[in-house]
Amino acid sequence: SKRYTGLIEHYRARLPVSDTTRLISLGEGNTPLIRLENIPRLVGKDVEIFVKYEGLNPTGSFKDRGMTMAVTKAVEEGSRAIICASTGNTSAAAAAYAVRAGITAFVLIPDGKIAMGKLAQAMMYGAVIIQIRGNFDEGMRLVKEVADHAPVTIVNSINPFRIEGQKTAAFEIVDELGDAPDYHCLPVGNAGNITAYWKGYSEYAADGIAKKRPVMVGYQAAGSAPFVLGHMVDNPETVATAIRIGHPQSWDKAWTVQKESAGWFDKFSDADILAAQKMLSEHEGVFCEPASATSLAGALADLKSGKIPEGSRIVCTLTGNGLKDPDTAIGQCTAKPVTVDAQLDAVKAAILAGL
Ligand code: F0G
């Protein structure tokens, strides 16, 4: 048996590396595709829903797929530093892969608007963290300006190697299911990931490994929904801070995906997003971060309306781990822990009360 050593090694022939490229990897990819057992029955639909649990990547999000590739290429090109703007997950991944490579990571994050787990990661991995009094979109603009004047490589998804790495998630799904699903649902912020999945599905279809390509459906938070509104949003807001983005970088690419796949965009309230996150945890034992649950919120809404027909096979990408944002998770749980004396009678009473 051969040890799994990350997605570049696994999909080497389909990625821009050579035999001499030094691979910067933490064993990312190869994430579980979990079939939902209880939720389809709960919503009364005869449908197959799989979740691609990207929260099990080394830094807890799909960003690791893009980052292994982007940092590998940055190092190959002689870069000594990388930079990104981030709502949190990209900064965590950039920081980790930079350490692995022995280079410096500069990360720009919106002050006070990233989940605690993500901040903890960037700090632990030793990134240079620059909190800006502004949002992600402003951070992105600054990163582009800085990179024009300094020897740093941008590792946001405008870096084409990010897309190359992230397309491997589509490969894994087809390798496992034997074909593409009918529908692929995912949360959309900058729209790098929807672009990457479409590239992966398209390459496999072109080579005959997949017989078809899925309909791509992108879901946004209502307060940060430029693709649904059809224009940029200046002051995006949502509890799903990962997708609190009003000026998506891959605007044109995402519209191409929508047209080529005959897909659509839709938006959901924070309440709907949190309800979907809770539902996944409570009924399937899968804990994702709020932004990730937008994909399931959307799939269930489109099943209800009939836009996605019964009998379909759906894959929802769960982009990040629920542990990334413990504050939001605890905040929405109504059943709080009970505290009792460390005595048998007290524990017995608590168990009886909970039966
Ligand atoms: N889900 C999560 C958990 C994310 O962190 C992101 C993006 C998305 C979905 C949206 O993906 O931008 O490719 O459409 N997070 C970026 C970051 C912006 O900085 O971590 P997208």
Automatic annotation (TrEMBL):
Modified-residue entries (N6-(pyridoxal phosphate)lysine), positions: 63
Coiled-coil regions in this chain?
none
Tell me the cofactors it needs. pyridoxal 5'-phosphate
Keyword annotations: Amino-acid biosynthesis, Lyase, Pyridoxal phosphate, Threonine biosynthesis
> Which EC class heads this enzyme's classification?
lyase
What pathway does this protein act in? Amino-acid biosynthesis; L-cysteine biosynthesis; Amino-acid biosynthesis; L-threonine biosynthesis; L-threonine from L-aspartate: step 5/5
Catalytic activity, EC: 4.2.3.1
Looking up InterPro entries in the UniProt record yields:
Cys_Synth/Cystath_Beta-Synth (IPR050214), Ser/Thr_deHydtase_PyrdxlP-BS (IPR000634), Thr_synthase-like (IPR004450), Thr_Synthase_bac/arc (IPR026260), TrpB-like_PALP (IPR001926)
Q: Which domain of life is it from?
A: Bacteria
Reactions catalysed, as given in the entry: O-phospho-L-homoserine + H2O = L-threonine + phosphate
Q: Name one GO biological process term.
A: threonine biosynthetic process
Domain Tryptophan synthase beta chain-like PALP residues, every copy? 24-320
One example GO MF annotation: pyridoxal phosphate binding
Fetch the NCBIfam families from UniProt.
Answer: thrC (TIGR00260)
Q: Which family does it belong to?
A: Belongs to the threonine synthase family.
Function of the molecule = Catalyzes the gamma-elimination of phosphate from L-phosphohomoserine and the beta-addition of water to produce L-threonine.
PANTHER family in UniProt: CYSTATHIONINE BETA-SYNTHASE
- Which protein are we looking at? Threonine synthase
Identify the species of origin. Methylogaea oryzae
Q: Which gene encodes it?
A: thrC
